[in-house]
Amino acid sequence: MPTDRLAPEAAAFYRAHSAFSDPGALGAHYAGLPADPERLAGVTRGLAIHRTEGGIYSYDIPADRLHDDAETRYVDDILRIVTGRNDAPLTLQREPEDRFVGVCRDFSLLHCSFLRHAGVPARLRVGFADYFHDDGFHVDHVVTEYWDEERGWLLADAQLTDPVVGDVFEPGFDPLDVPRDRFLVAGAAWQAIRAGEADPASFGFAPGSPLAGEWFVGGYVRLDLAALNKSETLLWDVWGADADSDAALTAEIRALYDEVAALTAGPDVPFDAARALFTDHDGLRTPRTVRSLAPFNGPREVTLRG
Length: 306
Known about the structure:
Helix content: 25-40%
Radius of gyration: 18 Å
Pfam family, one: Transglut_core
Organism: Streptomyces johnsoniae
Strand content: 15-25%
Protein name: Transglutaminase-like domain-containing protein
Largest sheet: 5 strands, mixed
Number of helices: 10
Distance between the termini: 38 Å
InterPro entries: Papain-like_cys_pep_sf, Transglutaminase-like
Structural class: alpha+beta
């Protein structure tokens, strides 16, 4: 049994949709969905393809889908794209050409949306996975964290549930129970770096990428706190207390990320404290308008839904 049962207010919060996970008028498509997390992860996997997986599925992804699908912030818009390409029930696995072309955040947001619809408390966790490279590099990644009445919060990576993908990366664990030393939530990665226990250059977008290092991990600490507060933005949305290089990481920003990481580094995040820190701090709270550093479509200001 988990050491503590999930508090009623936290359970209600994570069962309810956010502006990002709400299917809205497309919710009629949720009829007939299964209720258990594993089957819902399989449904998710059958609706989406990661924009780096074209070679795995022998599918030449059109450029416009590479550029535009993954700029989609909200589940209702993802569903609109999916059903526009194939209006079959969501439980039917699509061919690659009929799937949404996204990134890890999109798999996890869909899975989270399905879980909330089924009444399972669920949230996104932003951090770094070591199972996409065999050289010790931790790739920036997003997974779903869902509540199991017997075991507490578990991490799920719906992206790994297709055996075709699993055979490529061979993670060696159950995708519905990702070990916490294989996926480090951002706060845990930040603490390891600050303690001198991990090389900051081993965390980022890709080995050798300029999008790596302590500053990059710090930005994900901010994103993970936002996700815990159901502000499930795109990974390249920036605001508030953010730095774009190690040189820009001031002592004040580091101290703030230390405070956030102390709350969020594990699964048992103090609900009230995490809510208060996020909502009361101008440098952490997601504003109505964010700066989107879109990798394909270019930087721009984006006003989020209320």
